[in-house]
Amino acid sequence: MSCSIENREEKLLDYVSGSLETQEAARFEKHLQTCDACSEFVRGQKSVWNALDLFEPAPVSANFDHRLYERIAKTSWWDRVAAAVSAPFRGPMLVRQGLPLAAAAVLLVAAVLVWDRPAPAPAHEQPGLSAEVENLQPDQIQRALDDMEMLRQFNHAMRTDPAQSKM
User: Fold this and answer.
1) Contact between residue 31 and residue 3 where contact means Cβ atoms under 8 Å apart
2) What is the C-alpha to C-alpha distance for residues 143 and 146, in angstroms, rounded to an integer?
3) What is the model's pTM?
4) What number of CA atoms fall less than 13 Å from residue 137's CA on the CB side?
5) What distance in Å separates the CA atoms of residue 89 and residue 95, rounded to the nearest whole number?
6) Over 43-109, what HEC string results?
7) pLDDT 10s digit of each residue in the chain, 167 long?
8) Contact 5, 12 (CB under 8 A)
């Protein structure tokens, strides 16, 4: 039998809960005798299930439902503020005529802003990299390579000795 932990099977939990068929449970018990990982998992799960069986919830008061429904029905300060702010906008005339007019006005303003923009200026063309390389002198290239080597060595020194760094 393959190991249930390695195969990530649910047989372990089914075995602990007692929902495996008797033949499958018998095969699994044989596997538990040879597999330490599965047997440790089963022991842990059984202790959790036993602890849950012993758990006693706190008693609920007699008027719990009544208090709960009162709190649900009670309006919060945020609901009162939102109702006061939205009250002028809830009229039927505004909904039928004002809201569509406001939406059309917003769309018209947005279209004017987008339509009236000037065309972007053409981007300046960057000279090709090859033109810059041709104009470099050999001593400039040598200094650049020396600087890069110095930076590489500095970076390497900073990575290998962080305890003495003062940065």
Assistant:
1) yes
2) 5
3) 0.34
4) 3
5) 8
6) HHHHHHHHHHHHCCCCCCCCCHHHHHHHHHHCCCHHHHHHHHHHHHHCCHHHHHHHHHHHHHHHHHH
7) 567 665 566 777 788 888 888 888 888 888 888 888 888 888 888 888 888 888 888 888 889 989 888 888 887 888 888 888 777 666 666 556 677 778 888 888 888 877 766 667 766 665 555 544 556 677 788 888 888 888 888 887 777 655 554 54
8) yes
